[in-house]
Amino acid sequence: MVIRKAKLTDTEAIHKLVNFYAKKGLMLARSRSSIYENIRNYSVMELDDEVVGIGALTILWADLAEVRTLAVKENHSRKGVGKKLVEYFLYEAKELGIKKVFTLTYQTEFFLKCGFQEISKEHMPHKIWKDCLNCPKFPNCDEVLMCTEIDQKGE
Fold first, then answer.
1. Contact (CB, 8 A) for 104 and 67
2. Does residue 52 lie in a domain region?
3. Is residue 155 part of a domain?
4. Number of structural domains the chain divides into
5. Is it true that the peptide bond before 139 is cis, omega within 30 degrees of 0?
6. Range of 35's domain?
7. Sign of the CA dihedral 53, 32, 10, 37?
């Protein structure tokens, strides 16, 4: 398995995987346009030239980023794909000097295992909610806010 930055040619695979889970109510849908506009934020995990997992690290401020749109093909779930993608994003955040990474999720147990902690939504700056205005669940978001601090000194 290899993790790499997404290419424009990965858009269809990303779109299909995200919207598969969106139809189940497990994540928010993404349009092709949104994926194209944010392709530089996405990374994919490939196995035998097949995209088996995807996700995005979106920078929101000098010291703050979000893990978004994390999804793994059903036949590859529970095999470490999601965890490896999160580790990749946390490494990327550290390399960029980001101190805090958060996610909005329904998969709290998974993110707890990845070192995130549940926090109150009131503890985050208002700028993180800008994308929420376009969400069909706004203002009654039922996702859980989870966060982790990045150790900039340690290895």
1. no
2. yes
3. no
4. 1
5. yes
6. 2-149
7. negative
The number of beta carbons lying within 10 Å of the beta carbon of residue 70 is 24
Which residues have a Cβ under 8 Å from the Cβ of 69 and sit 6 or more positions away? 14, 18, 27, 30, 42, 54, 55, 56
Yes or no: say if 127 and 58 are a contact pair by the CB < 8 Å rule. no
Distance CA(119)–CA(80), nearest Å, equals 25
Q: What is the pLDDT of residue 129?
A: 53
Residue 125: per-residue pLDDT: 57
Strand-pair partners of 145 = 104
Residue 154 domain flag: no
Structure tokens, 50: 């097949």
Q: What is the CATH number of the domain that holds 122?
A: 3.40.630.30
Residue 37: per-residue pLDDT: 96
- Please identify every stretch of the chain with a pLDDT value under 70, giving residue numbers as ranges: 123-142, 154-155
3-state class of 3 per DSSP? strand
The confidence score (pLDDT) of residue 123 equals 67
Q: What is the pLDDT of residues 33-72, one digit of tens each?
A: 999 999 999 999 999 999 999 999 999 888 999 999 999 9
For the entire predicted model, the pTM comes to: 0.88
